Amino acid sequence: MVRDLARHPEICSINTATLGFQAPIDEVIEAVARAGFGMISPWRRDTKDLDVSAVARQIRDAGLKLSGYCRSPYIPAATVAQYRANIAANKQAIDDAAVLGAPVFVMVVGSLPEGSKDIEDARRQVREACGELMEHGRKAGVKIGLEPLHPVYAADRSCLTLLSEALDWCEMIEGKTDEPQVGTIIDCYHVWWDPNIRRDIARAGREKRIFGFHVCDWLVPTTDVLNDRGMMGDGIIDIRGLRTALEEAGHTGAVEVEIFSAQNWWRRPMAETLQACRERFSTAT
Ligand code: ZN
What we know:
By secondary structure, the chain is of the alpha/beta class. It binds zinc ion.
């Protein structure tokens, strides 16, 4: 049986992108805590130019835990120098995740560097980099979460598009293990259409590689595949069905709402969006 989210706000997480980055992170933290949620997932842009340890303290003092830290600078590059710079930027972000107390660093891996048509090379670069980032994360106490994106983004945002592929990569990077350091972030918006998604969620559970679960909805019609994502219940994703599959596969962690909505939710006051999230967590998630 799925967990009753209305009775478990402590596992309901607000990804700060949902609120449209309209306020500084200290105000966002207060708003999320005031709305009764137990978790938050900040972005690097929230902490840019700030003392990360001070932000960590604000989050702790508000009584919130982190479900993750978003997200990686893209990996694939046209030159070795740029590739090394991308890895260095990711290591810095992993260090920040550790200071914040995030259990997992969310990786949106990137895809073709400018001028390239070699997506297999991009994939190879990502896997190679992840091996190095995995070791960096292990020392820092932060796991690596690979988030496959919907294939509409395959050219630019993510050469990784399937959950099965993400699980294959985890094994190529780390091998089989009972205590994985590399796992997957399963986002409804990106995987709902996959005919094998239930099979692969079960596999992710068996392999202990479910490191995060993101929810929002796919609107029909959708006007912008990046920034026209819907509130849970407003679209066509069987979110409850996917959550049931995850929990049957052993997921006991957070359910994180992440909505990019430039024309709608980002224009509303944070308290209103948070209230809607609260309701839809219980009625449509
Ligand atoms: Zn996501």
